[in-house]
Write a structure and sequence with these properties.
- This protein is an alpha/beta fold.
- Strands 7-8-6-5-4-3-2-1-9-10 form a ten-stranded mixed β-sheet.
């Protein structure tokens, strides 16, 4: 079964390179895949990472983590990539953003994605542990350095979980000066999952089978450019699992300065202690790790446990 060409796993966004700058993060988002993901033991210097990003040949470089604004050489990486005529993007929880930080550390970026999962800052803090202050001033400062600003909102039950809440969020984004919004369904958190198809009644291209019909849809709501990002059955238990899915992978640059095929979970050959095994079983059960990859990671003593998790989940998503 082939995915829709709009999907990343269908070959879209080929001119983008994702960079995992660091493991450290000051938020505690419940759905975070990277928190229990694989993390290299080696740490390359910033110039090695920047050179590898340039070497990839991709025009768009997006800096991720962890929380990329905590990276001590963020300014140097941005300046290096800009000098090579790359478009530099950052996705952040917004905790470090203020006028001074933006002017000192972020000059040269093309755009920034600020994760904000409620228009009420105290509710966003409940979700992430992060209190964002001075958002409107930060957005103005980002515009002053020539950066576009997108607000990223994960739709979470009890927060942004209705069409009315989405419309309210759009009005809020316009008030604070954002340029775009992305509304995304939750990945691997079925308990708080909000089905965009149901709450929007199939409007804006939302659908019941994002793997086949497309998981990314760009629309305009009340004058605001909006992207809706849906999750297929490889990413959530709330939708049917695609049969024999075909997926194209893209390279991810980790902070050890090496390129990998997609985001890694637990590196093959790494000692499989009880903590790693538990994490692996959870990731297989939720569909993050492909069954064949899981089998290659472990020794014979644990294969029965992994097979049990595989039987509950099927294949995993590469993104």
């Amino acid at each position: 079964m082939k995915p829709h060409s709009k999907n990343a796993c269908g070959g879209n966004f080929k001119d983008w390179m994702e960079v995992n700058l660091l493991q450290k993060c000051n938020a505690h988002c419940a759905w975070c895949v990277e928190r229990d993901g694989w993390h290299p033991k080696e740490h390359a210097d910033w110039k090695t990472i920047a050179r590898q990003a340039v070497k990839s040949g991709n025009k768009n470089i997006i800096l991720l983590g962890g929380e990329p604004t905590l990276y001590p050489y963020l300014k140097e990486v941005i300046e290096y990539l800009e000098a090579w005529n790359k478009n530099v993007w950052i996705t952040t929880n917004g905790s470090m953003l203020n006028t001074e930080f933006i002017k000192q550390e972020l000059r040269g970026i093309t755009g920034i994605n600020i994760s904000l999962h409620s228009t009420y800052m105290f509710k966003n803090q409940d979700i992430t542990g992060i209190m964002i202050t001075g958002l409107e001033k930060s957005i103005k400062a980002l515009h002053d350095i020539g950066a576009s600003v997108r607000l990223n909102c994960n739709c979470i039950k009890g927060y942004v979980d209705s069409e009315e809440e989405i419309e309210h969020y759009v009005d809020f984004a316009k008030e604070v000066g954002a340029d775009k919004i992305r509304f995304a369904e939750l990945k691997q958190d079925d308990g708080k999952f909000v089905d965009l198809t149901k709450i929007l009644n199939y409007k804006y291209g939302t659908n019941d089978d994002p793997f086949i019909n497309g998981c990314n849809n760009d629309v305009v709501i009340n004058g605001m450019p909006v992207n809706f990002r849906q999750m297929c059955g490889l990413q959530t238990g709330m939708r049917p699992l695609p049969e024999n899915p075909e997926q194209e992978t893209s390279k991810v640059l980790y902070y050890d300065g090496k390129m990998y095929d997609g985001w890694q979970i637990i590196k093959q050959g790494e000692p499989m202690d009880s903590k790693n095994l538990e994490s692996l079983l959870q990731n297989v059960a939720s569909g993050v790790v492909k069954p064949e990859v899981a089998h290659a990671m472990i020794d014979g003593a644990h294969k029965k446990e992994v097979r049990s998790a595989v039987n509950e989940s099927g294949d995993g998503c590469v993104y």
